[in-house]
């Protein structure tokens, strides 16, 4: 079972091989979901200054999970949402992909992963994004939907049950990282 401990200014995450392998798989999938678009000349967004400056129209994501990561700024105003997407999506996608790369680099180090403060923050953001994707795939969009999913857990298909278990595992890791990081903050101990 995974273990998370503070060691000085660092956080050490210990994962068993099967946990690490699973996380490598799902974070690789998340990286693919966030992969850069190419223009008609085959240039990725990062090499296209027009895209970087928000001068290129960005279509609304068709995949509900990607739309959850890159939501409309105003679901009732399509034009406003499109303008916001054009101006911000490149940077938002790049930031999310950067966090995923930090997680994948950490996972590649082996079963014992030492994370500095900035890496812990990147892991927390990456875990949150992955949990958002999984919640969309599970059909969890409200607290009520989540409660119903857990109440019917015995009736779920095997793949859905495994996805829910993965969701729980990632939630636990994110919670432990957050708790560990918060315990190092100066302040009242009361």
Which regions are unreliable across 5 or more consecutive residues at pLDDT < 50? Answer: none
Proportion of residues in extended strands: 5-15%
Find the structural class using helix and strand composition.
mainly alpha
What is the total tally of β strands?
Answer: 3
Our count of domains comes out at: 1
Give the N-to-C terminal Cα separation: 31 Å
**Overall body shape:** globular
Major sheet details: 3 strands, antiparallel
Helix share, percent? 55-70%
How many individual helices?
A: 7
The ordered string of helix (H) and strand (E) elements is EEHHHHEHHH
Arithmetic mean of pLDDT: 90
In spatial order, strands of the major sheet run: 1-2-3
Radius of gyration: 19 Å
Organism: Brevibacterium marinum
Pfam families: DUF2017
Protein name: DUF2017 domain-containing protein
Written account of the structure:
The protein has 190 residues and is mainly α. The chain has one domain (3-183). Helices cover 60% and strands 7% of the residues. Strands 1-2-3 form a three-stranded antiparallel β-sheet. The model has no long low-confidence stretch (mean pLDDT 90). This is DUF2017 domain-containing protein. It holds the Pfam family DUF2017.
Task: Provide a concise account of the structure shown.
With 190 residues, the chain is mainly alpha-helical. The protein has helices spanning 17-33, 49-52, 64-69, 78-107, 117-138, 143-151, 158-183; strands at 3-7, 10-14, 112-115.
């Amino acid at each position: 079972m995974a273990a998370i401990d503070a060691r000085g200014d660092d956080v050490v995450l210990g994962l068993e091989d099967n946990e690490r392998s699973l996380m490598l798989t799902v974070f690789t999938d998340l990286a693919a979901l966030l992969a850069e678009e190419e223009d008609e000349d085959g240039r990725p967004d990062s090499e296209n200054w027009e895209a970087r400056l928000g001068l290129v129209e960005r279509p609304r994501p068709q995949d509900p999970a990607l739309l959850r990561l890159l939501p409309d700024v105003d679901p009732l105003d399509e034009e406003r949402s499109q303008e916001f997407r054009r101006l911000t999506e490149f940077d938002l996608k790049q930031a999310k992909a950067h966090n995923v790369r930090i997680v994948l680099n950490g996972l590649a180090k082996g079963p014992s992963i030492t994370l500095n403060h900035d890496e812990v923050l990147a892991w927390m953001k990456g875990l949150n994004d992955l949990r958002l994707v999984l919640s969309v795939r599970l059909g969890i969009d409200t607290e009520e939907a989540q409660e119903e999913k857990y109440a019917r857990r015995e009736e779920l298909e095997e793949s859905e049950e495994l996805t829910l278990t993965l969701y729980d595992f990632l939630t636990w890791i994110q919670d432990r990282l957050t708790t560990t990081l918060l315990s190092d903050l100066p302040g009242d101990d009361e």
